[in-house]
Amino acid sequence: MTPEPEQSERQHESQHQPESQRQPESQRQPESAGEPEVARHAESMVRRDDKGGFPAQQQDPPGLTSRMHPVPDHGEDTYIGHGRLEGLRALITGGDSGIGRAVAIAFAREGADVAIGYLPDEQSDAEETLGWVERAGRKGVLVPGDLVDRETCRRVVAQAVGGLGGLDILVNNAGYHWDRGGDGIEGLQPEHVERVLRTNLHAVLWLCQAASPHLGTGASIITTTSIQAYDPSPALLDYAATKAALNNLTVNLAAALGPRGIRVNAVAPGPIWTPLQPATRGTDTIETFGADTPLGRAGQPAEVAPAYVFLASPADASYVSGTVLGVTGGKATL
Ligand code: NAD
Ligand code: MG
Fold it and tell me: What SUPFAM superfamilies does this protein map onto (predicted)?
């Protein structure tokens, strides 16, 4: 595996520190911890100001983090845990990269053990995320598999439960779209539509079904939907429809599992800089990706993860179920 330069440097520093001097990531303060909160926040907004757009680039699906320019920010240097998920066990599908990696890092620093679902081609990304979970002092488990069929969904849940000794949080985050076929209904291709529906919708049903018997009172399910559920692009007809369906499923499943004390919620991100984008879009849309939001830029995975922490926290979100939390850079989720 050849991690991206930024991350190799981070690993290098930590590897060369004596074990006795290393602090668990969950307790580590970022270098700017002494500054007032507002100053720190302003600094991070400047660092994340992507108004200039992104350099033209393309990958084949599923896409790898190390081939992105710039490499996304998953909160490696900034996320500080506060024990909100102490002792909980989470399965995050698509946990290798992008939003899933940021959620894995945040969950681990909040005290959770994490199973990471991913496609076999993404082994290097999954191992990188696993490293961050372990450096937070938590247990990490790798559960590769293509979730397009029910049997794999069941196997992935079973391996996560086996590896973690149970399950308290299911994050249905794996997702796929294809935006290179031309606008509208004429651009739809059977193999892509099939993969979009099976990955985004069928798999979520099978994962929830397989996980449900393992979830107890205080457990929760969080699904990644999208701004596309509210403000759909004609180039993503099939994808947008699956995300709207997941919003509906969230409300319905919250009603079904509420009597067991299980909360079901969703996060609807706006444009976020992750491997999914260069892997499935044309370069022309990459250069302006996120520019049409009120904040005028794409978000970073690190800016989405706190929404999942809130929804997963049995204390902070104890009465929050059946809701979809938008993290959209200002685009309406109405
Ligand atoms: P990403 O490429 O980093 O993550 C998507 C992950 O989905 C991949 O890493 C892969 O492991 C997994 N995946 C895809 N097909 C799979 C399959 N058949 N079986 C198993 N795993 C599979 O990109 P991301 O943007 O972080 O995507 C995470 C979620 O966020 C997706 O559901 C996506 O639809 C959603 N989303 C992304 C954006 C955005 O702008 N990036 C916006 C709204 C919603
Ligand atoms: Mg990936």
Answer: NAD(P)-binding Rossmann-fold domains
Q: Indicate if the pLDDT at residue 79 is higher than 60.
A: yes
At 42, the amino acid letter reads A
Active-site positions read 239
With a 6 A CB cut-off, is 65 part of the ligand 1 pocket? no
| Atom of ligand 1 at shortest range from CA of 65 | 3
Does a cis peptide bond (omega within 30 degrees of 0) precede residue 62?
A: yes
Domain boundaries in the chain? 66-327
For residue 267, give every residue at least 6 positions away whose Cβ sits within 8 Å of its Cβ, in sequence order, or none.
222, 223, 224, 225, 304, 307, 308, 311, 324, 325, 326, 327
Starting at the earlier edge strand, list the strands of the sheet with 324-327.
140-144, 113-118, 89-92, 169-172, 220-224, 263-269, 324-327
For the structural domain made of 66-327, what CATH number should be given? 3.40.50.720
Q: Cα(77)–Cα(80) distance, rounded to whole angstroms?
A: 9
Asked whether 310 and 110 are in contact (CB, 8 A), the reply is no
